[in-house]
Amino acid sequence: MTTTWRLRFELSDSPGALARVTVRLAAADCNVLALHVIPVPGGVLDEIVVRAAVGVLPADLVEAVRSEGAKCVGITRADIRDLVDEPTAVLRAARMALTDPDQTGEALRQVLAADSVTVGEAGDGQVQLGEWAARRGWARFTQVELTRAQALLDLVDAPAPSMRALLTDDGAALVLRPGSAADEDAVAGLHARSSMRTMFNRYHSGMRTVPRRWLHRLLSPPRGTTIVGQCGDQVVALGQLIHTGTPDCAEVSLLVEDAWQRRGVGAALLDALAADARAAGFSELVAWCLPSETALVRTAARAGLAATTRREDGLLRVSITPRERALKTPITTDVAEKTR
C-alpha cells in the first residue's frame, strides 16, 4: 500500500536545486503530487507532498532530500486535504467554522496542519492564538501560517450584522435588521398589504403579488444584502443593497408598506443601507424610479444623503452619495406627505 507524505525543507537559492530534489524523489519511486513555497524571514521553505511506493520509508525520503543539499525540517503523513491549494483549503475551513462554531478548533487544526488544537493557555511546544493553543511536532509554525490562522479567527469572531432600533415620527417602535430566509412569509405579507401604486413604483410592473420563487432572492440576494423593518411579528419595510459589478457602485431599492409611509421609515432604512455601503467601500448608490416618482430623492434628503438625478432609458436615475452627507433639510408639510 502506498503512503502519502508531506515534507518541508530548506534549500539553497540556486538554479535547478528544487528540480534536482524532485528528480531524486522520483528515483526513489515517489510521485510528487503538490509543491508549495512558504515565505519565511531570510528566505523560503519548500514543501512537497509525495506518494511513496510500497516499502519506501520516511527515512528514505529524508535521505533523498538531504542528498541534494537540502535541510529537512519536517515530515509527516499527508491526507487528501493536502492536495488542495491553500486558499481553497482555508476557505473550506472557514466555512466549517462559520457554519458550526464548535468546529473552530478543527478548522484551525486543518489550516495549520497541526497535531492538535485545544482551548487553553499554550504550554511548551505550543503557540497561542486567542483562546486556542496549537501544537505541531513535525515542523515549526511559520509566521505566514499563524497570520492565516489569526485571520480565520477574526472572521469567525466578527460581530453579527447589527440590529437598529427606530422610533417613527409618531412614536411607533420598529427594528431594522438583516433579512433571512425565515422572513419569507412575513415579506410575502408585506407585499400583499402594499397597494398597487406602491408595488408599481417598486417593481415597475402591474403585478399584485410577488411570486413565491422571488422571496428567497429578495431576502438572500447573491451579490448584496437585505434589511427589513419589523414591528411586532410583521415586516413592514424592506431595503436591498446589490453590487452592480462596478467596483464603487451598488444599487439600492426600498419598499415600505403604505400604512408606514410618511413616518420616517424609508429614510431610516436608506440611512442603514448607506451605512452598510460605506462599510463595504461603495462611493455611489443608484436607484431607478419612474420619472414621476421623486419620493426617493426626498427620502435621501431626509436621511441627510446627497442625491442627484438624470433621465436615462425612460427612467429616473437617482445617484446617492453614501460617504459625504448633506445637511438635513427640514421637511415641509407638502414634502412630508410625499416622503416615505
TrEMBL record:
One Gene Ontology MF term: acyltransferase activity
InterPro entries: ACT-like_dom_sf, ACT_dom, Acyl_CoA_acyltransferase, Bact_Acetyltransf, GNAT_dom
Keyword line: Acyltransferase, Transferase
Domain ACT: 6-81
Keyword Acyltransferase: yes
Residues of the N-acetyltransferase domain: 174-323
EC code(s) of this entry: 2.3.1.-
Entry protein name: GNAT family N-acetyltransferase
